[in-house]
Amino acid sequence: MTKKKILITGGAGFIGGNFVHYLVNNYPNYDIYNLDLLTYAGDLTKHKDIENKQNYHFIQCDIADRKSIFTHFERENFDYVVHFAAESHVDRSITDPEIFTKTNIIGTQVLLDASKEFAVSKFVHVSTDEVYGELDFDPNTFFTEETPLQPNSPYSASKASSDFLVRAYHETYDLPINITRCSNNYGPYHFPEKLIPLTISRVLNNEKVPVYGDGKNIRDWLHVYDHCTAIDLVLHKGLNGEVYNVGGHNEKTNLDVVKTIIKSLDKSEDLIEFVEDRLGHDKRYAINPTKLEQLGWKPAYNFDTGIQQTIKWYIENEDWWNNIISGDYRDYFSKQYQAIVNKN
């Protein structure tokens, strides 16, 4: 197998971090570069077991910092870029849209310019089903790759904008690209502000679990491991210029997800607390992943097995999410960062 240098942006986040693990462990003869600014959601503690491996490298950098990004591209001569780095929490985008514009749009453009300048073999842009807007509750309707983009939040608007930029660089400059659009992910190392890890941590601590509105909003849940295998396939076999939707075939209401976790942990549904609905809260997301399945992908998890694996992981890794909630993971970064930099 030919040795490759792969740049993963946002590799200290949830999905990017899991993908870094996946590549480091499955492709030992690839050099994996994890580039992350380490904002509030960036956590290096998840990489304790791989940080000393010879094929793992960490770079702290802002993707919107053109000078630094071009310096790293020129020095390392990356073969592939897999772009996860993004501000992604919808609630935060409602209260502070500006940072989403800078990171998700300007940052993506800087990476595209560098990829074009230094002739990367492929740029894989990891996007979201939220760019499609919302579906009604008709179970026969799904997002496909041909569904028009109609984003409803500042977050999804910024992601749709970055999708258009990636497409434009392919059409205008012939940059080799793929775009993936996934449904809601869950699994190990999920930052505790998101629904599933928030619910697990609060239920374990016998704290109230907030549920927006009536809890009937529907999401299609995808285990992060299945997402990693999908991106791996697209990276190596995706047809140039194509978009691939990644869905888990696991539609659940938010309330059903919360109740499933509460039941699994043998707690009372009295912990559920309905709160004022989120602004612009999309009713339903559901993906048709047929195009990706025809490429050879198949999810390993259904929701029943995946959520039990996830709950078990959070029970067994309570120190990790407690450190995230308390902020102690920041101390780990300050102690370990210099050693990682010195290695590289």
Description of the molecule:
By secondary structure, this protein is of the alpha/beta class. It has one domain: NAD(P)-binding Rossmann-like Domain (Rossmann fold, 3-Layer(aba) Sandwich). About 45% of the residues lie in helices and about 15% in strands. A seven-stranded parallel beta sheet has the order 3-2-1-4-5-6-10, with helices on both faces. Strand 5, helix 5 and strand 6 form a beta-alpha-beta unit. The longest helix has 21 residues. The C terminus is likely disordered.
The CATH superfamily appears as NAD(P)-binding Rossmann-like Domain
Number of separate helices:
12
What ranges have pLDDT less than 50 throughout 5 or more consecutive residues? 332-344
Shape designation: globular
- Helix share bin: 40-55%
Order of helices and strands: EHEEHEHHEHEEHEEHEEHEHHHH
| Main pleated sheet | 7 strands, parallel
Count of domains:
1
Number of strands: 12
CATH class categorisation: Alpha Beta
Question: How many angstroms separate the termini?
Answer: 23 Å
Fill in the CATH topology.
Answer: Rossmann fold
Structural class: alpha/beta
In spatial order, strands of the major sheet run: 3-2-1-4-5-6-10
Features:
7-stranded parallel beta sheet, alpha/beta, 3-stranded mixed beta sheet, Rossmann fold, 12 strands
In brief, what are we looking at here?
The chain is of the alpha/beta class and 344 residues long. The protein has helices spanning 14-26, 66-76, 90-95, 97-117, 154-173, 195-204, 224-237, 254-264, 290-295, 303-316, 318-326, 329-343, and strands at residues 5-9, 31-36, 56-60, 80-83, 122-128, 177-182, 184-186, 209-212, 218-223, 243-246, 251-253, 272-275. Residues 332-344 have low confidence and may be disordered.
